[in-house]
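This is your field. Please look over both lines of this record.
***
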Amino acid sequence: MEAVHLYASQCFLGEGPYWHAGRKSFFWVDIENGKLFEYPMDSGKVNTWKFEQRITLVVEGKADHLILALDQKIARFNLKTEKLEWIASIEDIPGNRLNDGKCDAKGRLWVGSMSKKFDKGAGAFYSLDADLKKQKHLDQITISNGMAWTHDNNMLYYIDSPTQKVNAYHFDLDSGAIQFDRIAIDIPISLGTPDGMCMDEEGKLWIAHYGGSGVYRWDPLTGKLIEKVPLTAPHVTSCAFGGENLESLLVTTARENLNETQLREFPLSGDVFLIQTKTKGFLPNPAGF
């Protein structure tokens, strides 16, 4: 497998890839620049939107809406009218912002927070129900990042990046309760830091390694590394399955924390890449609101 350059988005901090099956498009964000991108796989004609706030995640909402996280709030964005409607406040903590997020099979949005100065333990991990009821599940989080549910919805895998670990939590779909089970994967710092991730139909985790120049496929049952798909960008931030057969992996990258010499060496940093895998992923869950 190899990563093919897809689009020169030149994101300072590309993140949040999401496959929208109804539009046959990949979405992703540039967090610090407040930009939302859409890449329709049929035409390749990219759409972009600019917001005044940092934008950290995008998922599918109801009808023609997307659900976005902007700074510390959640908004509904109408793709036809381009109207933005604020619907929930997750935190009101000076210096914090939201980060990665996904929806579970009940339509709850799970999203974590972090300090913009990366203060240790300043963040938390929340869910937002379909009735917009907020619940805090974890605190003392530093950089809340990747998450993925097993196909039977009995387990949630979650990353707080500086720990270098993927934690496994027992997950109750009906109540949304989580309970720590074990450390599923312990990643050596020599391979970079775990960031965003997704799961394939074989139950393996595809993890973007920030500073690790690739997407790594891990077995969460054994904790073993299976393979690496290298990228021509050191800071790989997230990945998501999509495409007609859910065999394509969209990968986001970042230009942040690279000096001018490094940017000349890795000019595609901040762009998005596509990997045609030998497995398949799952359709992402839309939000229930």
